[in-house]
Amino acid sequence: MTAFVPRTTFPALTSLPRSYYLGHHAAGLAKMKTMLNQIDFVIECRDARIPLTSRNPMFEDLLSGWASGGRERIVVYTKQDLAVEEGRTPSKTNKEILSLLRDRSSARQSLTGAHAMVVGLPNVGKSTLLNALRAGGVKKGKAAHTGAQPGVTRKIGTGVKIIDSENDASASSDVYLLDTPGVFIPYVPDAEAMLKLALSGSVKDTVIPPFTLADYLLFHVNHQNPEVYSNYHQPTNSITDLLSAMAHKIGRLQKGGEVDMDGTAMWMIQRWRNGHLDRFGLDLVNDETVAKYERGGEDERGSSLSQARKAGKEAARQRSRAKKGGAATEG
Ligand SMILES: Nc1nc2c(ncn2[C@@H]2O[C@H](COP(=O)(O)OP(=O)(O)OP(=O)(O)O)[C@@H](O)[C@H]2O)c(=O)[nH]1
Fold it and tell me: Where does GTP bind (predicted)?
């Protein structure tokens, strides 16, 4: 038997959508901008499975020049448990975040307490982090809704207390944390980056065909360990063959016995998202890729900014059309 050889490249998908920038993303970002002067700490969440791709150039723009005079930007990599252990981007633990906030805010001595804001892509885990910091800091239950699809938090709420100086001997200032809606990258120049973002859950699952996403997942799984799907099929580069085998095994068949390809593809994707189909990241992180990413950052920021402006104008046009009697649609 010849040894299995995984595909070395994934086919270029020129017709793939490159954006998922919605009205509430633009509105959320605009509101964050107006609030920044009252904010002392920004906790920027990135996804540990895509530490490079989940960096949003819009936050670079939002925060440029902001972090001075004691203000601090803290980058946190979420979903660590779903990323492969070796090569994982180191991140602060919740305990370390709380301790940093406690120390820095106590040093500031503000009478009204310190104010932090959590930002990041849709579905990256902002509300989950807020709940965890609140549980760790003031031992209180959930304050923010979380969910498996992007867009659960649509508006900036009011701050929740995560450090209470009255009940915390090592804190001399209260700290409040503000949840914000996830903001997508207005324009993703690289089609493969769009696949990574969609696979990680930042894009609604209706935007990119699940079959394409499952194929991209298979491409990665085959580089990690094709044995993880040995219950269904021998190592293969054919997503059609693998999904057919899975569908027969789990009973995802339509009337007449035809395979429900999209349903099975979604099932496979969810298994990976829940950590049941191996745990690994999608970004190759080394000195070279980091340097390349930094070099590309400026271009990406430029195209995202112009795309965001276009989206802003279009949203304004839709609002004015709606006012004149037409119906506005989002998306
Ligand atoms: N395995 C794992 N799942 C997580 C982690 N953090 C968040 N999640 C899950 O990811 C999904 C999204 O989490 P949320 O906290 O709602 O994400 P969000 O960034 O607030 O999402 P938006 O409201 O879209 O902006 C939920 O299903 C969470 O349970 C984590 O560290 N590990």
Answer: 123-128, 182
